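How a chain folds remains the central question behind the approach discussed here. In the encoding step, the backbone of a single protein was reduced to a row of integers, each denoting a local shape. We regard such an encoding as a compact summary of how the chain folds. The sequence in question and its structure tokens are set out directly beneath this paragraph:

___
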Amino acid sequence: MRIAEELGIEANVVLYMKEPPDAATLRSILDKLEDPATDLVRRDSLFKKLELTDDDVKTPEQIVGLLVERKALLQRPLVVTAKKAIIGRPKERVRELLSGSKK
């Protein structure tokens, strides 16, 4: 959010735990995602607790199904523009994407 403010760009922050994306929104994000689709899923303690593996998140449909069911596994920060989506790490990726969206 800070980077958007610095660049003078309006940003809409979505609190995904309160307003989780539905399946259609996740598919739209995947269509725009510059990163590998599987990177949209966090590989954290919940992922391990659920005994998930990379085989469980190989396809877009598997990813969408899992994230609809387990919103906490959505990778963040996620930055989405009209044409592109990225996982916002490192922060410079966010700056590059948003700087390009001003043109």
Observations:
- The helical segments are 2-7, 23-32, 45-49, 60-69, 91-101.
